[in-house]
Structures are given as C-alpha cells and as structure tokens.
Design a protein that fits this description.
- The protein is mainly beta.
- The strands form 3 sheets. Strands 6-5-4-3-2-1-15-14-13-8-7 form an 11-stranded antiparallel beta sheet, with helices on one face. A two-stranded antiparallel sheet has the order 9-12.
- A hairpin with a 4-residue loop joins β2 and β3.
- Keywords: Signal.
C-alpha cells in the first residue's frame, strides 16, 4: 500500500533548457551563497509545487508534489499527483506523520517519518522537505573535515527559468568517489552522512542498509566523499531561492529538482496543518 508513496522534497527540470549568459561582474560567489543561505534560513512559511526525478536502484522515478510548510515549529503538508497526502506537525501524533495512501483500504495511517516505509524509494525524508538540505550542502556540516567540495561552488552566470531571471551556482568536483569508512564506535547512518556531507540514501543503497540503521564499530562501509560530482543550482534573482537543483555523481544523474509557484513568508492559517482541514482526505 505504501510502496506507491513518494514524498518529494525537491523536483526536476532539464538543465539543457537553461541558456546561460555571462555572469554579473558585480556579484561574487560569496555574495550569492550568503544571500541564498540567508533566504533559506529566514523562511517562515513556504508554498510551492515540486517536480522531481530521482535515481532509485538504477532507474529513475518522477513525481509532482504540492507542498506547504511552516517553520519554528516545523509543519508540512504534501499531496502528490497520485492523491497521496502527508501531514507532519512537530509535537503531534507521537512524532509520526499522518499518511493517506489514496488506495485500498483508503485509511489514514501513522508512520515514522524516518522509518523504512516512508523512506522507501526516495532520497529525502519529510523532515527535509522544501529546501531542508540545501543550506547545509553549501556550507558543509560541522562534522565534515574536508570542505573542498563546498569550496568548489562558483557563480557561473545567469539564465531564465520558468520565465524568471536566475543566477547559476555550480560545483564541479571530479574528486567524487566512494571511500572505505570503519566507525571507531557504533554510529548511525545519519551521523556518517553528516560526517561526509553525502546524504543518507547512497550509503543505505550501496551497503544494503535500512533507514534508521546503526553501524557497529569496525564494519567497513563504502561512503561517498561528497554530495556529488557536479551540482547546479538555479537561484531566482528576486526570491533568492532555488528554482532548479541538479546533482550528478559517478553514475550520472542522481537527482534533479524544480520548484514552481513559490510563495515565501506569506501567512498560512493554522487550520491548514490539521487533519480535518477542508479538502484533505486524512
């Protein structure tokens, strides 16, 4: 029943449709990264539509999702093109998300947002919805020792996406590879991903681990040394928020995302983050 569920954080657009123009000499890489990071960190609410293409076990899966979010405390409601709905509100439902699968027996279930069912066939969790991973991708986690990947980002010119002027932020990291890592003590996959700045999904996939798994001391894992070989982000010049994100790794396209109809920092009534809001099937 839940196998059809795809919770999507960011969505895809073919970057070939973006024709780059020369960079604005007045804008520096440091300024663009600072503005992008600040805009993400200062979000109070967000509404958007999302298209995504993610490589899952060697094949690509696509989906469209409508999303609304509020922060501090974190709340998110998602509905995808299959009619599957998800509602997560910090401090409610014993920490679980409400999920309406829009399939037999058409009953809302409560699921751990970090558990195997909700993480199956997707790169990111509901807790990372919206731009949850982007700011950290740019600055690197506090646990990461080698920050050469983060330093590889460069302002690479301007383009137009969905009719909107956008800056291009690009990282080329040919050093990307899988390395062997043996924990000195028991660690979670999340903490290892934080250490390498690579995201959890490829660690789980490459090593046959389930979401939420712990890794005993001394077990050898194959872990990516960065998030990707190439990352391209198209940043809306007015909103200073991502419109397109594309990540390539050693196998080619890893994930590609597009955001549209973005409305940031406009009030969202509290009722829209409740199960009984009009129009929801939760």
């Amino acid at each position: 029943m839940i196998r059809t569920f795809r919770l999507l954080t960011i969505a895809g657009l073919a970057l070939s449709s973006m024709a780059a123009v020369p960079a604005d000499a007045k804008l520096t890489t440091e300024q663009l990264i600072a503005r992008l990071s600040t805009s993400i960190e200062n979000l109070k609410t967000l509404r958007c539509n999302v298209r995504a293409q993610e490589r899952i076990e060697g094949s690509y899966q696509q989906a469209r999702t409508s999303m609304k979010m509020a922060f501090k405390p974190y709340k998110v409601y998602l509905r995808n093109q299959k009619g599957i709905e998800v509602l997560y509100v910090t401090g409610q439902n014993d920490g679980d998300a409400w999920v309406y699968p829009n399939s037999f027996p058409y009953v809302t279930v409560s699921l751990d947002p970090l558990g195997a069912l909700m993480r199956k066939t997707q790169h990111h969790s509901v807790l990372d919805a919206g731009y949850g991973t982007i700011a950290e991708l740019l600055r690197g986690s506090s646990q990461r020792v080698d920050h050469s990947f983060e330093k590889s980002f460069r302002y690479a010119g301007d383009t137009t996406v969905q009719g909107r002027p956008a800056h291009i932020l690009r990282a080329d990291y040919p050093q990307f590879r899988y390395v062997t890592y043996k924990p000195a003590k028991t660690e979670t996959v999340a903490s290892i991903a934080d250490r390498f700045g690579c995201g959890e999904y490829r660690i789980l996939e490459r090593n046959g681990l389930a979401p939420g798994a712990t890794v005993p001391a001394g077990r050898a894992l194959q872990v990516p040394n960065a998030y990707g070989r190439r990352v391209i982000i198209a940043v809306d010049q007015k909103l200073t928020l991502p419109l397109v994100i594309q990540v390539n790794d050693d196998k080619g396209l890893f994930e590609k995302f597009e955001f549209s109809d973005i409305v940031a920092n406009q009030p969202i009534p509290a009722q829209e983050f409740t199960k009984d809001f009009k129009g929801y099937k939760l």
